[in-house]
């Protein structure tokens, strides 16, 4: 599918002001004329970008069905500017929200992988607050959320999966250097977790109450995921009691879920959300 895609040049959007300003790269596929289905929005995981296998396959599905597709690189990732070490959930959430509001689709289906699942859940909360007035002033309008597909979602991973398992030397490094490093099985470069990321993660917790997305949610989770245990996906479902939620376990699936069979499951899940979100028959 992906080899049928035309090459497209990234666009850049400035997010933030002053020293916090950074150039965020995005790839935006417009919908075919007259196609009123929701736009697909890809949200990558930690240290992943919009050129990964799942992101490219999702864009290929959008091309096949004539849908809009929005991909972005968070600051410090891929083609975007900014330092990775400055990254926090709040910062990356701000960027995703800015890109979605810039493109301004009427409806969106959020497809989030790993940390992108956390960003998707926070986006749902932020979009639900649109149009209201808060102490910070009026909220900007945003699109309606038509559905969500979460792949090995890692909501609250800083407080749920990292902090409880910190070793003494990692705590010492956080205190003295402001970060600690961990070997990555996906890259020769180590993963870096900063004190700012961990502290900000506490402010963005979603597993401390009911999460009301107001849309269908399909979760795909590998049972041999060494990074996000499948019990974490089950815990997430407990916090989504009001929504139409499907949880699909892949018995031999790892964290990436990027094998051909995994990709087929992902595209099938997205098609299912598209069907449930549109009144007219879609060729899916």
UniProtKB/TrEMBL annotation:
Gene3D superfamilies registered for this protein in UniProt: alpha/beta hydrolase (3.40.50.1820)
Keywords carried by this UniProt record: Hydrolase, Transit peptide
EC number(s) per entry: 3.1.1.93, 3.1.2.22
Annotated AB hydrolase-1 domain residues: 40-260
Broad class of enzyme this protein falls into: hydrolase
Source organism superkingdom: Bacteria
Reactions accelerated catalytically: mycophenolic acid O-acyl-beta-D-glucuronide + H2O = mycophenolate + D-glucuronate + H(+); S-hexadecanoyl-L-cysteinyl-[protein] + H2O = L-cysteinyl-[protein] + hexadecanoate + H(+)
Its job: Acts as an acyl-protein thioesterase that hydrolyzes fatty acids from acylated residues in proteins. Regulates the mitochondrial S-depalmitoylation of the nucleophilic active site residue of peroxiredoxin-5/PRDX5, a key antioxidant protein, therefore modulating mitochondrial antioxidant ability. Also catalyzes the deglucuronidation of mycophenolic acid acyl-glucuronide, an active metabolite of the immunosuppressant drug mycophenolate.
Name of the protein: Palmitoyl-protein thioesterase ABHD10, mitochondrial
Species for this entry: Rhizobium laguerreae
């Amino acid at each position: 599918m992906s080899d049928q895609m035309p090459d497209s040049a990234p666009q850049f959007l400035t997010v933030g002001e002053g020293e916090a300003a950074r150039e965020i790269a995005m790839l935006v596929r417009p919908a075919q004329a007259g196609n009123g289905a929701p736009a697909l929005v890809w949200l990558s995981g930690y240290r992943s970008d919009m050129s990964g296998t799942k992101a490219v396959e999702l864009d290929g599905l959008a091309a096949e069905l004539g849908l809009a597709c929005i991909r972005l690189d968070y600051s410090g990732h891929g083609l975007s500017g900014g330092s990775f070490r400055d990254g926090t959930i709040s910062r990356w959430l701000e960027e995703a929200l800015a890109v979605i509001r810039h493109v301004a689709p009427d409806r969106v289906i959020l497809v989030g992988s790993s940390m992108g699942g956390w960003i998707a859940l926070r986006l749902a909360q932020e979009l639900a607050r649109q149009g209201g007035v808060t102490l910070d002033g009026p909220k900007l309008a945003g699109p309606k959320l038509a559905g969500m597909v979460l792949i090995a979602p890692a909501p609250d991973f800083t407080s749920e999966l990292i902090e409880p398992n910190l070793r003494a030397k990692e705590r010492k490094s956080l205190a003295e250097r402001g970060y600690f490093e961990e070997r990555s099985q996906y890259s020769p470069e180590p993963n870096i977790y900063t004190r700012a990321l961990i502290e900000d993660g506490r402010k963005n917790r979603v597993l401390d109450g009911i999460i009301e997305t107001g849309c269908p949610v399909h979760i795909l989770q590998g049972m041999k995921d060494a990074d996000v245990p499948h019990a974490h996906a089950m815990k997430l479902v407990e916090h989504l009691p009001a929504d139409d939620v499907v949880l699909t376990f892949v018995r031999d699936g790892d964290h990436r879920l990027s094998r051909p069979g995994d990709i087929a499951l992902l595209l099938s899940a997205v098609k299912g959300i598209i069907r449930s979100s549109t009144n007219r028959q879609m060729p899916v």
